[in-house]
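The record is passed on directly below:
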Amino acid sequence: MASLALPHFLPHRLRWNHRKNRCRCCLSSVSTNESSTAVVWFKHDLRVDDHPGLLAASKHRSVIPLYVLDRRVLSRYTTDTLELAIIALEELRESLKKQGSNLMLRYGNAENVIEELVKEVRAPFVYVEEEVEYHLCEVLDGVRKKLKGVSFPGGPPRVVLWRTPFYESLNLTDLPQSWEEFKELKLPLSLPVSAARFSSPESELQWEWGSVPTLDDLTDYMKESLCEKESSWRDMAHVSAERVLVERIGNLKKGSSVEPISDGSLRKKVHNSVFVTRKRDTVAGGTEVVLNALAGYLRYLEGTSRDDWQEVHARLRDAEIRPGASFFKLFGPVLGLGIVSRRRVHYEATEYEKERNAGFISPFGYSAATVAAATDAVC
C-alpha cells in the first residue's frame, strides 16, 4: 500500500490563497481521483476550521468524516478529557452538518473499522493527520498494514498524511539547533485555512452515522477493556476529598440555579457559559465556542458587560498563578484535542494586538499580557 503525504510545508508545495480563503493548488504531488470517495479520519483534530486534510478531501465527489472510538486511544485520556471529547464530537458533528456533511462514529480498533468502512463505501483514499507520538504511530501503522490487503481496481487504498506547520520553511535540515538562532531567522508564519464545504450525494443519507455516546456509555465501554483495574485505580488516585465533597454538594443542590465553584462559594449559572464540564475549570465546546472564549481571554484588560466573558476573566484570575499559566489551564485541553489549531490561536491573538495598536505589532513585545501568554503557548 502506498503511503502519501501532503507536502510538509504548505506555503511552498501546497499553496493556499489566504485572501480568498481557499486552496489554489491542492495535492500537487499526489494523484487523486476527484470522482471517488474519501474517508477523513479524525483523532485529535476535532475541528472543521484550519483542517488541511478536510479541505483537500472536499475535492472528492463524496467525503466520509470518521471518528473511531478506539479503546487504545481513549484509554490515554482522563475522565475529564473524555468529557471534553464528547462535547467536541457533538459540536464537530453540528459544524460538519452546517458545511453539508456529517460525522460517522464507530467503535472498535481503528484498523478494523477503517478497513470495513473503506470496503463499504469503496473509498480509495484515507486522509489522516501525521503522528509523532509512538503509540499513535503504531495505530497508524496498523491501519496501513490492514489497507494493504484491500483489493481495489486501481490498487489498495492510499493513506494521505496532512500537517499544519507553524512556520514556513523549505527544509527542516536547514534550521539551526539553537532557539535564539532560529528566532533570528524571522521565518514567516503559515496562516490558518478556511473550513471546507461539501455537497453530499443522496446515497450518503442511507449510511449509519452512529450517535455520540454519553460519558457513562463511554466509561462502560472503556471498562470492557483489559485495563479496567488499572484505569479504576488511576481514577481513584486522582480523586481528592475536596472533589468528592463538591460533587456531593452538587447532588444535594440539583435543580437549584446555583452551583459550587473551586473556591467553595456559590454562583449563579452563566448564560452561554464556556465552562460546561462537571469540574467547570477549563474551556469546553466546539471551535466557535472556544474562539469566543479566546476572544474574551485576550480582552481581559477591557471592560465587558457580557456574562460569558466576565466568567472567563474570573477563571483567568484564579488560574494565573504565574505569568501565562492561565492560558494553559483554560485552553490546554482543547488544544490537545485539536478543537482549535495553534495557528488559529496565534492568528487571532496577533490580529487583536494589531487592533489595539492601529494595525502594527511592536518589535518590543505585545501590549497585553494575555496576547503574550497565548502566542508563547502555541509557539
Q: What stands out?
A: The chain has 15 helices and ten strands.
